[in-house]
Amino acid sequence: MTTNGFAEYIWLDGTEPTQQLRSKARFVALPDAPAANDFPGWGFDGSSTGQAAGDDSDCLLEPVHIAHDPRRGKGNYLVLCEVLNADGTPHCTNHRAELRRTLDTAGAGAQPWAGFEQEYTLYHAGRPLGFPADGYPAPQGPYYCSVGATTAFGRELADAHARACLEAGLSIYGINAEVMPGQWEFQIGYRGIDREPVDVLTMSDQLWLARFLLMHEAERFGWAVSFDNKPMAGDWNGAGMHTNFSTAQTRDRDGGQDALKSAIAALSRRHEDHIARYGAGLADRLTGLHETCRIDEFRSGIADRGASIRIPASVAVKGHGYLEDRRPGANADPYQVATCLVETVCIGRKTEHLLSERATAAE
Predict the structure, then answer these.
(1) Are 350 and 103 in contact (CB under 8 A)?
(2) pLDDT bucket at 3, cuts 50 / 70 / 90
(3) Percent helix, strand and coil across the chain, each rounded to 5?
(4) For 314-332, b where at least 16 C-beta lie within 10 A, e where not — what string?
C-alpha cells in the first residue's frame, strides 16, 4: 500500500559563521511506514543559499532522517537531508558526513551517546520577551524555572514546541524557563525508554529537527528565535548547548570512573580546537561569569556549573555514566560538537591504546 502526502525537505545552508535552516516541500507517494531511503532525492539552487556559484548552482538533497510532520498531520513528513555536490559527493558545508566518517573510524564498539540541552531566547519587536520597551526588567534570579505572568515569558510557545516534538517522534525529555527573561531550554536525548536510539548521529539529527520545529512554531506567534550565545550584553546569562556525552566505557560499571577521567584528560588537550568549533561569538558567553568557565581556561569538576566539563553528582556517586560538556554555545552545530567529542574521546583513546600495545610488543 502507498500513502500520499507532503514531505518538508530540510537542510543546512552555507551561511557563515553560523549555518541556517532551509526547507521546501513536495508531494510524495510512499509505502506505509517509510524509511529515509524511500524518499526521492531532490535538488535546490545553491547560489541562493551560499553553497554554489550562479553559473553552476545545482546542489542535491539526500534524505537521511525522517519524522512525522505535526503541522500537516498524518501521512506527511519532515525529511532532514544532507547536502551533496552535483557529482554526489558531500558538500563542504555537510558536517553530518564528517561525523559519519568519524563514527566509522571510532568503530561500533565505542557506542557514543549524546544528549543536548538547547537554550534559546525569544524576541518580539527587537527585545527579549519580558523586557520592557525601554530599560530593563528586574535582575535575573526569579526567572529560572519560574511560574507566573510576571516571571515566565513565552511558555505558550515552549509548550507548543514540546507537543510538536512529541508528535514528530523526537526524543524530547524536558523543557524549562531559563535564567534570563524570555530565555528557555529544551532537551533532546536519553529518556530511559528501552531500545530508543540515543547515538550521537541520531540525536544530532533530532536536535536540528527540533530547532526547525521551534522556529516553525514561533512563526505562528510572530516571535523570533535567537540562538545567539550572548543575546543581551551586561549582567545577563548567555545561552548554551550543554552536551551530555558517554561511551560504552564510561557507562561500564567497573571501569567507568577511569574512563571518565581519561576522557576529561583527552578533552583538556584539545580545548582550543574544540572552542573553535563550538559556536560563533563564544567569547562573549565564556567569560568566567554566569555559570561558565573562561574561554581560555579548561577545568572540570563534580556538580560544578562553572567548569568546562561537569560530572553530575549522581555520576560521581555511581562511578560510571556521562560527562557534561558545558562549552558549546547555543548556536553550535551538534554534528561538529559530536565529531569533536568522538574524535577526541573514542578515536584518541583507541589510538593511544594501539600505540601502547605496539610499545609493549616491541619490548
Answers:
(1) no
(2) confident
(3) 30, 25, 40
(4) ebeeeebbbbbbbbbbbbb
Contact 112, 239 (CB under 8 A): no
Q: Is the dihedral of CA 243, 227, 15, 297 positive or negative?
A: negative
Helical residues (DSSP H) of the chain, grouped into ranges: 95-106, 155-168, 200-221, 256-269, 271-275, 313-318, 334-341, 348-362
Q: pLDDT tens, 107-122?
A: 999 999 999 999 999 9
Q: Can you say whether the dihedral through the CA atoms of 258, 263, 268, 269 is positive or negative? A: positive
CA distance 40 to 47: 22
Distance CA 184, CA 223 (A): 14
Q: Which of 94, 115, 213, 240 lies closest to 173, judged by CA?
A: 115
pLDDT, the chain, mean: 94
| 60/52 Cα distance (integer angstroms) | 11
Residue-wise pLDDT tens digits, 231-252? 999 999 999 999 999 999 999 9
Instruction: Supply the DSSP symbol for 55.
Output: T
pLDDT number for residue 80: 98
356 pLDDT above the threshold of 80 = no
pLDDT digits (tens, 9 = 90+) for 174-186: 999 999 999 999 9
For CATH 3.30.590.10, the residue range(s) in the chain are: 103-353
Q: What is the DSSP string of 79-95?
A: EEEEEE-TTSSBPTT-H
What fold does the segment set 103-353 form as a domain? Creatine Kinase; Chain A, domain 2 (3.30.590)
- CA 11, CA 189: separation in Å to the nearest integer? 21
Other CB atoms within 10 A of residue 302 CB: 12
2-93, what's its fold? Ubiquitin-like (UB roll) (3.10.20)
**Per-residue model confidence as pLDDT tens digits over 57-80:** 999 999 999 999 999 999 999 999
The residue type of 223 is W
